[in-house]
Design a protein that fits this description.
The chain is an alpha/beta fold. The protein has a five-stranded parallel beta sheet, with helices on both faces. Keywords: Acetylation, Hydrolase.
Length: 210
């Protein structure tokens, strides 16, 4: 019996920034996936992680990201990466969220950037009021100083929604962020694209979402 559906934001309700990363790398002759590899290396304590927890400011992020990327083969400034985060809303995912909202509790757990960060108004914090209003509760990493995949952020959500994690579905586009939710007993969906995610969500909830 499903009680709640919990969503990631960027790469789930919006298109993934990975395409923009790839374009940037190609245009500048950078090694393939240098940005993603920099994000993934030491992913709990790297510049990206610290910035999403609001532990460092934008200048420190810019410098630390440059150092970390250079160690992997090419220097990329952190400030150059932030504008690449912009994603477009996926209307079919928003429609699915609206139909879910009519039947179940809804939550959003997002690793985002401090509100003063360059690009954060359009990146993974592309907070369209109409969409954010569809969530019963939103947890933002930059506001609470925790980020996925820290298990505490998932516990905070189920406690606030007052639901059993075994009765929850969680959607994210990153496998590393699905693991803690799955270990808590949630049904997890790795979002590759909208039709695939909606199909799995229909199977998990028994609802028609399109």
């Amino acid at each position: 019996m499903i009680e709640a559906v919990i969503w990631d934001f960027g790469g789930v309700l919006t298109t993934s920034p990975f395409e923009a990363f790839a374009r940037y790398e190609t245009e500048r002759g950078l090694p393939i996936d240098i940005i993603r590899r920099t994000n993934a290396a030491n992913h709990l304590e790297n510049a990206w992680a610290k910035f999403e927890r609001a532990e460092i400011d934008i200048d420190a992020f810019d410098n630390q990201f440059a150092v970390e990327s250079k160690a992997l083969g090419a220097e990329v400034r952190g400030k150059d990466v932030l504008p690449l985060l912009s994603g477009d809303l996926r209307p079919e995912m928003v429609e699915a969220l609206k139909r879910i909202k009519a039947k179940f509790k809804t939550g959003c757990i997002t690793n985002n950037l401090p509100s003063n960060a360059i690009g954060s108004h359009s990146g993974r914090t592309l907070y369209v009021a109409e969409v954010m209003a569809l969530f019963d509760h939103v947890i933002e990493s930059a506001k609470i100083g925790l980020r996925k995949p820290d298990p505490r952020i998932y516990r905070m959500m189920v406690e606030t929604l007052q639901v059993n994690p075994k009765n929850c579905v969680y959607l994210d586009d990153l496998g590393v962020n699905l693991k803690p939710a799955r270990e808590m007993g949630m049904t997890t969906i790795k979002v590759l694209n909208a039709p695939q995610a909606i199909g799995e969500l229909e199977a998990a909830t028994g609802l028609t979402l399109r």
